[in-house]
Structure formats: structure tokens, C-alpha cells
Amino acid sequence: MSGERVCSAAELERFVREVCRGVGAEEDIAGEVAGHLVRANLAGHDSHGVLRLPWYVAQCDRGQIVPAARPRVIRETAVTALVDAGHGFGQYSTVIALEEALRRAREHGVAAVAVRRSNHIGRLGEYAERAARAGLVGITTVGATGRRAGIVAPFGGRARFLGTNPWAIGVPAGAGQPLIYDGATSAIAEGKIRVAQSKGAALPPGCIIDREGRPAALPDDFYGGGALLPLGGATGGHKGYGLALASALIGGLAMIDGDETVPASGAADPTAGDDRGRMGGVFVIAIDPAAFGERASYEGLVGEALAAAKRVPPAAGVAEVLVPGEPEAGSRGRREREGIPIPETIWGQLAEVGGRYGVALPE
């Protein structure tokens, strides 16, 4: 297709891993970040894929990401843990948090882990998929509030205050397709604006406002000081707003004893003056169905419910009813066969960071 390069997942992953090694990450950290970004591309979520790499390199340059940082458990009970990410790569620290939650939930039935001093944690659906593959229910959210952390206007407001504050839920279904819900609480994810900008495309109506609070559709209106709108639009935006606030307040459990940092969220404005109301963090919950009864029985019930949803007659113009997680599974199959498309503008940015660290571009 004109304006795109197409390359294999393996080549892209090799490229990202070597660049991450170049900025100072150790092999296991670099491998986790690279695998996460490429799996986002495979799943069809290019907004959370390799286009993030130049942004991460810039954050490393500014000292916002500490590439070699390793997360530490600094407080714990049998069923909870508080992880300090040390400003390292968010994908790696969140995987550590998830593994802590899964381990504790297998022993005690349910567990929760909060993460402080994190950076961008990537595509949340990744963590939901990992939990479901392990046979557990997983819930992950990352939230932020505050003018310097926010890129989303509250319902009825015209200035930035909230992060995109997504939620992801994974529910196992045995051998069948699990439920994998992953959604921002904004009208679209900020990464979708990056994708549109890279393609010179406009955004759908009702997604953003410009710096004066007027409806807008061009990515440059957002990056010029505008804001995203909450999920639900003019009629139901109070629902997205409420979920976004809940995400930040629950994530803020990581801040109780005085930590003052919140996760990076999209294109937050570091120059905004008023820092009051700043709150947020990463929060992971794991639930073992076996704590409530027979695991296989639960997975069977989930599978039957999802199959029943798919049997609902489709609306006019719709081929079939899908359950959350199916579009990503379909995209993964196609892109594993056909390759991952990269817009020329993103390819140029990858070439720049690759050249800086002597890393050959993907074939």
C-alpha cells in the first residue's frame, strides 16, 4: 500500500529491542518492551505499537524514563503489594506487578497490586490476555488526574485534567476465545491521534476540542493545546468521566504515603501551572475462579455466554456480532501472515532513532 512499509513481527521486535538496549535497558527489560509494542501492532492497535518508540527515546533523553530501573516490592501483605517502578519502562514494571498479583491470587483467591513511579504501560489488553491465559480473571487500570498529567477534559469542561485512564478486563474461557476488554475512558485513545497525524487524516467528530474549547477534528488542534473528550460524548460523557476519575483515584492507592508522581499519560503538558488534585497510578487485580468453585465449570459458563452473544442476529450492515478480544485475534492472524504496516512518517522516525544507536532498520 502506498505510504507504508510492511515488515515482519520478528524484524520489528529485533529493531525495538536493540534500540531499547541502546538507550540503556538490560536485555530482559528491552525484550519485554519490544515484545509488548510489536504485539500491540499485531493486535491491530498501532496507536500502542512501535510508533511509541521515538517517544520513549525522547523520554529517556529527558530523564523521565530510567531505562535500567528495576521495580521493587516495597510494601506487601498476603494479598496485596505496592511496587515502586523507579521511573523505569512501564511495560516491564506492570508485568512484574501482574505476576505478583497472579501468584498471590492462586494462593489466596484474590490479590491486588498498585504501582507507583511508573511510565506509560502500553496496551492494557496485553495484561488482560496474560491473566486469562493463566486461567485467572485480570483487571488492570492506569489513571491520572491533574493539569500536568491530563489530556482529557472533564465532562462539561474545556481544559485538560484527566489522562485517558483505560481499563482492561480479561476473563478465561477454557480452550475458547477469552473475553478481553480494553478501552480508554476518553472518546479515543491519544495514540489514535498520533496515528491519524502520521497519515495526515482527520479525526471523527466528537473526539477532541481545540484550545478554546471548540469542537475540532485535526490532530494539530489537539497537540496545539486542545483536549480529548470523555467517552460518551455530549449525551453520555458523564459516564466516561466517572470511570476516568475512578481509575485515577484507585490508582492513587499507590500514593498514600506521600509519593507525588503519577504515570505518564499521552501528551501531558509539563508547563501547566496548577498542580493541585494530581493523583494516579497503576492498579492490577487478579481473581482465581477456583476460589469460588470448579475452575472448568466457570470457564464453561463463560464460553457458553460468549457463544450466546455471538448468536445474536447482527444488525443491518454488520457481518456478525463479535465479543471483546475477537478483533485483536483476527488482526493477529492476518498480520502474522502478511506483515505489519508502518506509515512512512513513522518509518522515518524509526530510521532516525535506529541511526542514532547504530541499529539496522527492519527488512
Task: List key phrases describing it.
363 residues, alpha+beta, Hypothetical Oxidoreductase Yiak, Chain: A, domain 1, Ribosomal Protein S8, Chain: A, domain 1, 2 domains, seven-stranded mixed β-sheet, three-stranded antiparallel β-sheet, 11 helices, 16% strand
Explained architecture:
By secondary structure, the protein is α+β, with helices and mostly antiparallel strands. The chain has two domains: 1-68 and 329-363, Orthogonal Bundle (Hypothetical Oxidoreductase Yiak, Chain: A, domain 1), CATH 1.10.1530.10; 69-304, Malate/L-lactate/L-sulpholactate dehydrogenase, NADPH binding domain (Ribosomal Protein S8, Chain: A, domain 1), CATH 3.30.1370. The chain is built from eleven helices and twelve strands. It has helices at residues 9-23, 27-42, 52-62, 90-108, 125-133, 190-199, 219-223, 233-251, 295-310, 326-338, 344-356, and strands spanning 4-7, 72-76, 80-84, 110-116, 137-145, 167-171, 179-183, 208-209, 215-216, 227-228, 279-287, 340-343. The chain has a seven-stranded mixed β-sheet, with helices on both faces. A three-stranded antiparallel β-sheet has the order 9-8-10. It is globular, with a radius of gyration of 20 Å. The mean pLDDT is 93.
